[in-house]
Amino acid sequence: MHTSRFLPLSGMSRRGVLAAGGSLGLGALLAACGSSADSSAPKGGTPSGTAKSPSGPWSFTDDRKQTATKSRTPATLVAYIGSAAALHDYGIECTGVFGPTTLKDGSADAQAGSVDVSKVAVIGNTWGEFNIEKYAALSPDLLISHMYEAPTLWYVPDGSAKKILAVAPSAGINVAGVPLTTPLRRYAELAASLGADLDSGPNAAQKARFEKASADLRAAAGSRSGIKVVASSASADAFYISTPSSAADLSYYKSLGVDFIVPDKVQGGFFETLSWETADKYRADIIMLDNRTATLQPKDLTAKPTWSQLPAVKAGQVLGWPSEPIFSYARCAERIEELTKAVIAAKKVS
After folding, report:
1. In this predicted model, what pLDDT tens digit does every residue of 108-140 receive, in sequence order?
2. Largest Cα–Cα separation, the chain
3. Which of 65, 139, 263, 327 is most open to solvent, judged by the fewest CB atoms within 10 Å of its CB?
4. Rounded Cα gap, residues 144 and 24, in angstroms
């Protein structure tokens, strides 16, 4: 997933394939990794949550069933940038981050959400990059990341993981093979353990917005039951079709009634790889196209004849899709709202 989950490159581990979209320029479709080209904040800005200042012993049991403990609530947090972005929306700030944080011009990658990247220490910005010395110098209390293949922490390099994990306790949140509501709940629980007040006005409003958006999508999907949707990612050499069951966001949208095309030759549990000559194998009314900065966008695909001839492309029914969601209620609510509008407006063209 989410994730650079698309990159069948020889010599790469399955985990490397998932993340290569961020470092090698191929998209990975699914909740998956890399960076999104969607740089907009939720309408009206991301609600800033409020945080308490709890004291006393702290513990949190993560999705590896490992319990991290500290004598007091962790204050110096280092996290995968997507994790940091989710926590930020609840009012919890990280000191250091790793993963796709800044673009070549120094501006924030969309995967950073509303995190002020000028105020965090960047431990690594690309796949395989993690400065252990810089990390240790921060005296971290807790390391936080997604998990696409437990127990491996996302963007923590395999070769140095043992040294990294010896520096501080860690927490991994599973984001693959589960519905969107699961990582949303778990990141909210982690934020609460770190001092977020989930009952505050801004945080309560985030969840209410998500619940309304979900209900609206269910209603829209029910009224447009014939509209078929495909989730995809594009690279120079291939067109990747995601299977909804592997992606937290897609599986959730499907549960709300969105009619997804399911590829019939899924590789590694995440996607089917099509050559551009066969990119018209699946014909949908709406194409959700991975819009992370490492993937090709519609403007990059005009020279691909099969792309230009796809019914949804000809009808202008292509929706940008951050294939790795930021797991906060506000961010996910905006994604759902955009999909709802697309479903309502779509013409039947497949």
Report:
1. 999 999 999 999 999 999 999 999 999 999 999
2. 62
3. 65
4. 24
Q: Which residue type occupies 275?
A: S
Q: What is the SS3 assignment for 165?
A: helix
Mark the ranges of the chain whose per-residue pLDDT is less than 70: 1-55
Distance CA 65, CA 62 (A): 5
Distance CA 77, CA 190 (A): 12
Rounded-to-integer distance, Cα 91 and Cα 191, Å: 8
Take residue 40 and report the two structure tokens written for it: 């907009």
| CA distances to 3, 110, 182, 208, 347 from 318, in Å | 20, 19, 27, 28, 12
Model pLDDT for residues 246-299, shown as the tens digit of each residue? 899 999 999 999 999 999 999 878 899 999 999 999 999 999 999 887 899 999
The residue whose two tokens read 């700030």 is: 93
208 CB-near residues (< 8 Å, 6+ apart): none
pLDDT at 49: 54
Q: How many degrees, rounded to 5, is the angle at CA 337 between CA 261 and CA 5? A: 45
